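Hi, can you check this record?
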Amino acid sequence: MQENQTEKKSILRVVIHSFFVVPLIISIFAVMIFLVIRIMTSEPNSARDYLEDVKIGGTTKRWQGAFELSKLLSNPKMVPKDEMFASEMIAAFEYSSNDRDARIQQYLAIAMGATKDMRYMKTLIEAMPNADIGVVQACAFALGNIGASEAIDPLKNLLDNSEPQVRLHAVIALGKIGGSSTIPLLQSMLSDQEPNVRWDASIALAKQKDSSGRSILLDLLDRKYLNSFPNIDEKEKVQVMLVAISVAHFIQNQELKSRLEDINSNDNNLKIREAARIALGKFII
């Protein structure tokens, strides 16, 4: 009797193992192989794929598609050159002005700027007067990346905007465009009430070898001055100083050179000291 029960249990185990466990293992293994092959053979989304998400996706998919598009198009090799793509980008941007989620239009503006394509300039300029503040900033940023002198006057109109971030993006864009006509505009922003605007104006001027912002650059190379801004952490201070160091040699000013020599000898941050050493090698005075 005991042997019969043992035999029945053994048979039951064999049946369970044969008809349930083994097929389950095989199925899992097959699914894993399928997923690996799918991942290996699948192609990454193209600019057109992301633009299609923007055009027909739900709200979340639309802004995520626009965001991915803005990243992808920063790679020149991934930018479609045909007229149809440009027209569809412009149409999607204009249509998104009616969207409640402004991020869609913001990222599309950044995406257009990333291409550095002049075909988008008119659309970006025309959007600024009535757009959401975030979209205005994105358009200014994009126009700076495109770098066309035709954008100078529209950006000039943003310099007296009540929003500091709008003025800041306009200054940064004008600095990227450069040219003699931007110098008086940037000089006018050296007395702006917002520190970031003043700082970026002085840096943009220095890149054009204009010394109007020299005193501000000296401040940016002074840790005591930067320490007076409690909202700026150490990482940000280092970044500010590195940027100021990188443009100081364009002015070839003795006072700036002396400040760099002091930084090279005494600053606690090795990265800053090394940047100062390299910058000093570019001085000829």
Summary: The first helix runs from residue 2 to 41. The CA atoms of residues 164 and 193 lie 9 Å apart. Residues 34-42 have pLDDT under 50 and may be disordered.
